[in-house]
Amino acid sequence: MKSLCFCLTLAGSLAVAQAAPIIQPNDMLAICGDSITGQHLYSSYLEEYMLMCAPPVDGLSIAQFGRILEKASGFESHLDADVLTFKPTIATTMYGMNDGGYGPLTDDIANSYRKAQTDIVEKMKANGVTRIILASPKCVGAEYHNHDVAGAAVYNKTLGALADIDKDIAAKEGITYADVFNMFTAVMAKAQAARGPGYIVAGGDGVHPDPNGHIILAYVFLKAMGYDGAIATVTVDMDAKTAEGTPGAKVLSFDGSSVQMECTRYPFCFTGHPTDTDGNSATILPFVPFNEELNRYMLVVKGVKGKAKVSWGGYPAQEFSGDDLAKGVNLAAAFAYDNPFHGQFFTVDHDVQVQQAYEERLVQGFMTPRKDYTNDLPAGYAAFDKWIADAMAIRSDLYKSAAAQVVPIHTFIKIDPE
User: Fold this and answer.
1) I need a surface site. Which of 16, 18, 132, 198 has the fewest CB within 10 A?
2) Which CATH architecture has domain 4-224?
3) Cβ-count burial 38-66 (b if 16+ within 10 Å, e if not)
């Protein structure tokens, strides 16, 4: 498979080389990483995007394998005991934050990291995981080690060097490289230049981001997976009194003003508001092109002369020019918080969080230390493996329960020309 590299453009977004999403029917996606992955934030965003926003994929299953204090070498040592038990067909990895030793880079650190990351890729390939997205570590923020700004600069130099190692491994192994380090660095700098250093992106400890920082991580991974961001398009002709929608946005009727719809694809929804300055997910939207490149729920209206007010699902109307409507307006951006999908989106989010928390307990509490437990069991491995099989069935049911919450949303778009 040809190696793909996702790098920063001058505009600060990722150049997309992927022709189509790499997720395929019956895939099991393993989202692997350290405690940043173990926050269940970007990993939840990835799962939610694939369940609600992207075209549906038959037989898809997703699980996260984040672990506190994990290094690449540690992950490699128990990869077969837990992750490979799930029989993944595709995997994402993000390590390096702990591997760098929180100080200047040494040859021993660099060599150890290169070996561990290479071993992970080769072991996955040997077990049928041929599609791998190898992500670099993210950078740290100025809050690192109680605002040790000089120390943060030193450690970011180390993390940048580890990112270069990851890029080199991806090229040699023919897998996809996701440049988290440079994207996170660029977005954080842009956001803090606009809002001041008090706007925290990398997290209160400089390492573990709040939801705003995890949107950056989700953006990088989703772009690396090849998603083009075309959620839905609704096209209305006011003169002809016609309306039509793309798959997932079924038009039921149009009376010349109101489009009644049944929607099975949702826009990605956020917490907070783009103008806020806290750690909610929406606050990073002015600085990362998530809506523009991954979350386009477009309304195209022909035949509006002057301006028109548009209301989505009864939420407060917004005004657009006829020219903008003819070109298409992104409802997901215009109604970033107030939209008819918000409630059900976060119902799904709750169930995804329950599922991923269960996976953490299952993997770390029982699957990894399986050998230690079974040495003390009279029935040996067989009894314990039966327990793990039952627990994995529960995990599967939790995933299916989350997916089942993605129900059709009946809503409307009302267009009132001047």
Assistant:
1) 198
2) 3-Layer(aba) Sandwich (3.40)
3) bbbbbbbbbbbbbbbbbeebeebbbbbbb
